[in-house]
């Protein structure tokens, strides 16, 4: 063992450790942790324990040290990891979508991640994740169109949800724009058809 690690495996601990190894329902990570301590209690060296348990030197030392400080219970418990970012509340997401629909401040031509982060009080990475999840690309201002429908966020969420998590046994079909005609160009109503000279619509 490492020079700063020293412990004795008591008969009670040895019994618990052997039970963990013998139990077919024990997670494998618990089995080899228990074996490391059992072999350590038999005064085997680090190299021998590594070979017997197919683990690294640092792994052997880690679980020897854990047992020294926390006993058998410490072998069965993983260290807690720092919590991840809390999810953005749905009403906050809806507000960011609403802001994306509105003109950006300071007479800018389009929203940027930095501008949205500052106005909405969120991280730029969070704004990027919301835009990506909802298919929003306001920085592509030459092609991107924003609806002024007050229920745009609700409809967008419903459509995106249909693709991401469709109902059971459902078939989701997508119909693209007509070839050579993009809906992005249809920002103004079409002009009424006018007959030119010599043109007639009479089927006769």
From TrEMBL:
InterPro entries: Homeodomain-like_sf, Transpos_IS630-like
Residue span of region Disordered: 184-204
Transmembrane segments: none
Source species, domain of life: Bacteria
Pfam families named among the record's database cross-references: HTH_32
Biased composition annotated in UniProt, kind: Basic and acidic residues: 192-204
Name the record gives this protein: IS630 family transposase
Organism of this sequence: Tistrella bauzanensis
